[in-house]
Design a protein that fits this description.
Three copies of one chain form a homotrimer.
Chain A: E1 2-7, H1 15-26, E2 31-36, H2 44-52, E3 63-67, E4 78-83, E5 86-91, H3 95-99, E6 106-110, H4 122-135, H5 140-143, E7 144-147, E8 159-161, E9 164-172, E10 178-183, H6 184-191, E11 196-200, E12 206-207, E13 222-226, E14 231-236, H7 247-250, E15 258-263
Parallel strand pairs in A: 1-2, 1-3, 3-5
Antiparallel strand pairs in A: 4-5, 4-6, 6-7, 8-9, 9-10, 9-15, 10-14, 11-12, 11-15, 13-14
């Protein structure tokens, strides 16, 4: 049985190790897999992007603990969400709606533990027990009340106007690659195979071809590909953020900047 | 069986992977868990804080390898320490006395291996064999001589003067939260439920309430809570070190700075 | 069965977790071990140094996935390399010749998967399946064609001139230790036990002794030892890169700088 951890806790403090110890203490034979602990603090958009591109790789019945912005408050309930035959445990801060492209198969509001109300470390003190309960084959209904909805948070979606798609950069990875919110599906629907130009705000360069692999252009050359999530990605082959060479730096592009695709009539 | 690793070796070099390979080579079925490899170099106080707040989460019989300041020298013996039904292996540089709140149940001075005296990488070349010996159920007395004492290193403890507790900041985590050396126990003993003010050196702010969860105050507000180690912690709700928002930066507070609590008569 | 991962992908994006999920999806009982994901981007010399000093610690039959500069192109085939009873999977960018000190026992050019040519993430989309095939006991010849050679890439080797060895710094670790390309073997062959002086370019200091352990000199003192790879290493005892104390900073030494050893006649 697999339990994954996603958090903004880093690895220099004791938090992540305490969570792992607590899991192994209950279930010595479970496998704990780190998704990432380097999520920028409280950044649920970044965390949702990482999870969205990861969870489908994992086997059925995998249990995902989400330790980002995990404090419960009046509007952020602690939830178990079931979708794609996997479980996700976290605070209802909007992240669930960002991870999934379809309505969850089940949502449970985790019951208050009346013995103690002092949970300053909910990922360890609450989510671990819930995850171990589920990993043992326990039902979510035993530890939560089924509810109907998760909090909805929408990211901008591309705008289509005749022969033009206006999207934006939603994520920049460690290589400085620009990952947009323009999917292969919308690109094909609007473009229907016509010639096109991709324009980057703040840059005079345009790109007129989609490649399959970075190495189809020479080192240092700009390239557009559909990345593994099937979203349009603008990159520099072997460019690297930080060394002055990544696409984000060369083009001066930040998260939320506009990417425009114009198809020829 | 679990073996944990705590070190200042980082993950960009080969050291940590060589240690893991060496363990799996001897014991393919053991589980190796990273506590942290991002301990600041040679910082046994940081390492002890991380271990102190972690080890009790782990199951009985867990074996902890401590690869921080691990070189043997004339005063730093290589030790096996047994406490709380777990084993700890490291150099006697003072760290053991910082991890535990009670005398160890057993201390063994690891025997010199007469075959080779060239151990420039003791965590791999010495501690791994010892850990595997223990993980197989071997007795510490087979590989070491029982001794009576560990080297003692004391951190400052809070000073109580009538209605005042003077403590200090002992650790600052990646969110910039200030973790003090003032325990809930001493707070309750001195305070007996009376009203109080917490003063931070170098800051004109005071805090007059202890909360249970960060989210009980609005974002950006200062808050005092007893953290998971039951030590008083001063934080900014959703403040983050590095973005100019963590408590350490907002209050200009560093490790070893004084925190004063004055209780009303 | 062990599968290790070495990459330059870092842990803040989804790449590494997607790889792990894909492996566990195929083989729930395999053990995935991170060698490092902090290899500098596309730096096959750094990656080869880390692997060279690690792989022999691992058990026989371990499978190593190398996700550094892993894109296939006209000259970089995707290979399975067998050596020392272990498998290595990666692109033939020269890294294999840097890892090994002997010719591989077998080399296979991984067959093109004709179903899809869109592999922008070969470490996950190609190497994982190959690794799982091998981990199940499958033969390399089933998924590749045996070939005779790997691409050769040579690093500078020390030059010996009478009583002098001229080597260079090949790697600087996180402590700032300078790891040279001068082996214990060549040192002993040329030196034959004679007195010597080690000179660092750009530094007026010399070192006249090889120690066994860092702690044989006082803190802050320079020291030469043969490190675990049996290569000459110049260090500052308890010096740390970044705090102004590591050997690289104190001596102003960078990768590729010359180290000279002069033996007395």
């Amino acid at each position: 049985m697999l339990i994954t951890l996603t958090s903004d806790m880093g690895l220099e403090d004791y938090y992540v190790a305490a969570i792992k110890g607590a899991i192994y203490n209950q279930l010595p034979n479970v496998k704990v897999v780190d998704i990432s602990h380097d999520i920028p603090p409280f950044d649920i958009v970044h965390a949702s992007f990482v999870l969205k591109n990861t969870f489908k790789e994992f086997p059925k019945n995998t249990i995902h603990i989400i330790g980002v912005d995990a404090e419960k408050n009046q509007t952020n309930k602690h939830l178990i969400v079931k979708n794609y035959d996997q479980y996700f445990i976290g605070a209802d801060n909007g992240i669930f709606s960002l991870i999934f492209d379809k309505k969850p198969d089940g949502i449970w509001n985790i019951n208050r533990n009346t013995e103690s109300e002092n949970y300053s470390f909910p990922t360890k003190d609450i989510f671990v027990s819930i995850a171990c309960h589920l990993a043992r084959g326990g039902l979510p209904a035993v530890v939560g009340n089924e509810i109907q909805d998760i909090k909805s948070k929408q990211l901008f979606r591309p705008i289509v106007d005749m022969n033009t798609i206006k999207g934006m950069v939603g994520y920049i990875d460690k290589y400085g690659n620009l990952i947009t919110n323009i999917s292969k599906k919308i690109f094909n629907e609007v473009g229907k195979g016509k010639a096109f130009k991709i324009f980057l705000t703040k840059s005079e360069y345009s790109i007129e071809k989609i490649h399959q692999n970075y190495n189809e252009v020479v080192e240092g050359e700009r390239i557009a590909i559909f990345g593994s999530g099937d979203f349009l990605e603008i990159a520099i082959n072997k460019g690297v953020k930080g060394s002055g060479g990544g696409a984000s730096q060369l083009f001066g592009i930040s998260i939320n900047d506009i990417i425009t695709i114009e198809f020829k009539d």
